[in-house]
Design brief:
Fumarylacetoacetate hydrolase, domain 2; five-stranded mixed β-sheet; globular; alpha+beta; single chain
């Protein structure tokens, strides 16, 4: 579904260097979900060789498979065949509290017990006492251990600071397989949430062996009031209908785009509301406290993902700009248009609704298998 003011042309959401980028995605055709590749600016349907993106990436050697040429990507009608989330059978994983500012905001949420007004009162005090120290500490180091002891002595320790500077990263499951929304779709927040926000992130895409093969953009929609009341409500804060967005494409690593480009990436966020409210923010991957590949290592340390996985790398963005009244901070409203952008990854844009009002999720793994079987794509050769 394309939103107001957006054209069907791909130029509006592709990376700035799309004509040389190697991209993988999925489109919704009349037949069903269809894996596609963009190479040299042309869009190719590769579903006959690889019915799922998971299979494509697990077999990836750098050679682009043959397929059906769909023409120049900038001329393709994405209104008729919209983009889906660019992954299918991969697990949706996320790392939390990977930026110092984010860690401070989590402490504020916890202390405020989900009360936005109380959070503003706490924020100034904690920022002076904790923020600068956290930025200078390498997680898991002896210095981090000393800082932890000092914070405990001052009564400022928090479970969020444990994962921010301790040896173990927070790794959690964002949502079920196939539940992610793509570029142009609606995203949902719980209808009973009064304090929530987007979380614009770079997302690594990994195969079954844990190889980071590329990256995409993500929106890890978060309910600050739910998680702020208790970290044990993380499931309700994170995993709801339409609460995860990915896209527009996976950009595969090659000679022109590497994991170092991820480490240097800048992610921009713009929110525009029907009430003429506008919010802008930026997140710099250079400020992340754990290297993205270290996060992948921790996600894989004692777990296997036979169909691969994606890993949200966390966000620096925690909006405090007031929207309705002084001290109440930011929260979403239905109709907000959220734009997550990074020059070499493109644009992920979605409109906010409630999880109840969003289209029900009815196409799961069984539905996908039935669809692929009906299209003759589950032969022994295709299922390699």
């Amino acid at each position: 579904m394309l939103m107001g003011g957006e054209t069907a042309g791909a130029a509006a959401f592709l990376p700035v260097d799309w004509n040389t980028a190697l991209l993988v995605g999925r489109i919704q055709t009349a037949a069903g979900p269809t894996p596609v590749i963009v190479r040299d600016g042309r869009l190719t349907d590769v579903s006959r060789a690889f019915p799922t993106v998971s299979q494509l990436l697990n077999a990836w050697t750098g050679d682009v498979p043959a397929g059906v040429d769909l023409g120049p990507v900038e001329e393709f009608d994405f209104a008729a065949s919209p983009l889906l989330a660019p992954v299918d059978l991969q697990c949706l994983k996320a790392a939390g509290v990977t930026f110092a500012v984010s860690a401070v905001e989590r402490v504020i949420e916890e202390r405020a017990r989900g009360d936005a007004a109380r959070a503003e009162e706490i924020r100034g005090d904690l920022r002076d006492k904790v923020g600068a120290d956290i930025r200078a500490v390498r997680p898991g180091s002896e210095e981090a251990a000393r800082l932890k002891a000092a914070l405990i002595a001052d009564g400022l320790w928090s479970q969020y600071l444990e994962v921010a500077i301790g040896p173990d990263a927070e790794i959690f499951t964002k949502g079920p397989v196939l539940s992610a929304m793509g570029h142009g779709a609606q995203i949902g927040v719980r209808s009973d949430s009064a304090w929530n926000n987007p979380e614009p992130e770079v997302v690594l895409v990994c195969d079954a062996q844990g190889r980071a093969l590329g990256a995409t953009l993500g929106n890890d929609v978060n309910l600050r009031d739910f998680e702020g009341r208790s970290a044990l409500l993380l499931g309700k804060a994170k995993d709801n209908n339409a609460s995860c967005a990915l896209g527009p494409f996976i950009r595969l690593f090659d000679g022109g785009f590497t994991v170092d480009d991820v480490r240097r990436a800048e992610v921009e966020l713009t929110i525009e509301g029907r009430d003429n409210y506008r919010l802008e923010g930026r997140s710099f991957m250079s400020e992340i406290s754990r290297d993205p590949l270290e996060l992948v290592r921790q996600a894989m340390s004692e777990h296997q993902y036979p169909d691969g996985f994606v890993l949200f790398c966390g966000t620096l963005f925690a909006p405090t700009q007031d929207r309705d009244a002084p001290g109440l901070g930011f929260t979403h409203k239905v109709g907000d248009v959220v734009r997550v952008a990074s020059p070499r990854l493109g644009v992920l844009q979605n409109e906010v609704t409630t999880s109840k009002a969003a289209p029900p999720w009815a196409f799961g793994i069984a539905g996908l298998m039935r669809n692929l079987a009906g299209r003759g794509l589950l032969s022994a050769e295709a299922a390699r």
